[in-house]
Design goal:
Shape of chain A: globular
Helix content of chain B: 55-70%
Strand content of chain A: under 5%
Number of helices of chain A: 7
Distance between the termini of chain A: 58 Å
Oligomer: heterodimer
Number of strands of chain A: 0
Order of helices and strands of chain A: HHHHHHH
Distance between the termini of chain B: 50 Å
Strand order of the largest sheet of chain B: 1-2-3
Number of domains of chain B: 2
Number of strands of chain B: 3
Chain lengths: 154, 274
């Protein structure tokens, strides 16, 4: 049951808590090192909460996802450097909550029911969501990792 | 990508072909370990470069795809090339971290034998988390996704049950080394079935979910190829096209397998979930 909506802050708190637990679960699945578990969950929460706030302000789902995953990619650089762990660890767990699952699922259900137009609409929606995640983390990577962002032949 | 070893005060002693071959075994092993743990091609190449340079090789050219590594090492007028086939891809962040840490902190007097011993140690690291804890964590994660996707507490519970059973079954089936597509299809079907039974069972007690769609979505989320999608993206941004496209294909196959699993069960239940 959705928790009672008292003010715009309440659903955000709920989102924060839920995305924290969600990211933590997948960090366990991917066997993230123990010392990184909480940072992973916190970063996933940060990205998802930004995504929720932007959507509350009326931003489109894809743009909100882009900024959310950009934040995930940028924030990940700090614990990665401090704990000397690969950046990809924080990125992958961080974006899990933003994967457009519902549209992807609808593609299947619509097509199965013979609703081609609905299926295509959901497919494009899901594609935009995945594309936004990709562009977000790609951009963050180029900014935070010079070895990655520049082709260098020393 | 080609990296030359940093300037040294004295030129490195020329390596014999035998030594090159020994070094190559270790370098390839580092690459295979990282690739099998699910990291991006660029990182695999980088780790191999570091180890090769640390062991005194002049130049390494590595061509890393999702299913194999081809690499040549050069020293003086000698060179050695090897191909390694990579199977059974998985995700193991702890192993990626350990190998990367090793390549960054290679002892100055490292030899192929010592590096190989260190790799043995990494390969035999015990699992960090007991399987029960992972299943519980993933089940709660899937439950929270049901709520995040607009579901109710009932949907959350159904998704938790379904993903818990599904993931446990997945671990069992993977142990039998069954084809991974078959595993994904079966687990998706079972998870959907468990979710349906739970929703129906709760409805018997008057706990009716107004819109169970999020539950069914979240029930199969534990098989979403999130890792593959992200690493595919990172490969493509680096223009590692072969590897990136292979990863996208792998991710799509996995998504289709989940879809097929759901479709096996959907008509049996006669449920309208839209």
């Amino acid at each position: 049951m959705p928790l009672p909506v008292l003010s715009p802050v309440m659903p955000l708190l709920q989102d924060a808590l839920l995305s924290f637990v969600g990211t933590l679960g997948f960090a366990l699945l991917y066997n993230a090192p123990r010392k990184a578990l909480l940072s992973c969950a916190a970063i996933g929460m940060g990205g998802y909460v930004l995504h929720s706030i932007l959507q509350q302000w009326g931003m489109s789902s894809a743009s909100a996802t882009f900024y959310g995953s950009l934040l995930v990619g940028l924030l990940g650089a700090f614990p990665a450097r401090r704990l000397q762990l690969p950046l990809v660890l924080f990125t992958i767990t961080g974006i899990i909550c933003m994967i457009p699952g519902i549209p992807a699922y609808k593609v299947l259900v619509y097509f199965n029911a013979g609703d081609i137009l609905g299926g295509l609409r959901s497919a494009i929606e899901a594609g935009f969501g995945v594309g936004a995640i990709v562009i977000g983390i790609g951009a963050a990577r180029i900014v935070t990792d010079s070895e990655w962002g520049f082709e260098r032949d020393p | 990508m080609t990296l030359h070893s940093p300037e040294r005060s004295e030129p490195p002693a020329a390596l014999t072909l035998n030594q090159l071959s020994e070094i190559m075994q270790v370098v390839i092993r580092v690459g295979v370990l990282m690739l099998r743990s699910g990291t991006v091609s660029f990182r695999v190449e980088q780790a191999m470069q570091r180890v090769a340079q640390g062991l005194g090789v002049e130049r390494l050219d590595a061509y890393v795809t999702l299913t194999g590594i081809t690499a040549s090492i050069h020293c003086g007028d000698q060179h050695f090339t090897q191909i390694a086939r990579v199977k059974s891809l998985g995700v193991d962040m702890n192993r990626v971290s350990a190998v990367e840490y090793l390549t960054l902190h290679l002892p100055p007097d490292a030899t192929p034998i010592t590096v190989s011993q260190l790799l043995d140690k990494i390969e035999h690291m015990p699992p960090q988390y007991p399987q029960g804890l992972i299943v519980a964590g993933v089940a709660s994660a899937c439950g929270t996704f049901a709520i995040l996707s607009g579901g109710s507490g009932i949907d959350c519970f159904a998704a938790m049950m379904a993903s818990g059973v599904g993931l446990t079954l997945r671990y069992r089936l993977l142990q039998t080394r069954l084809n991974s597509i078959a595993v994904t299809v079966i687990c998706a079907a079972v998870a959907t079935l468990v979710c349906y039974s739970t929703v129906r069972g709760l409805a018997q007690f008057g706990l009716l979910s107004p819109n169970p769609q999020p539950a069914f979505l979240a029930a199969v989320l534990f098989q979403v190829p999130g890792m593959l999608l992200v690493t595919a993206a990172l490969d493509l941004v680096r223009l590692d096209l072969i590897s990136g496209i292979a990863r996208i294909t792998h991710a799509l196959i996995q998504l289709f397998s989940v879809a097929i699993g759901i479709l096996f069960v959907l008509p049996l239940t006669g449920l309208r979930i839209l």
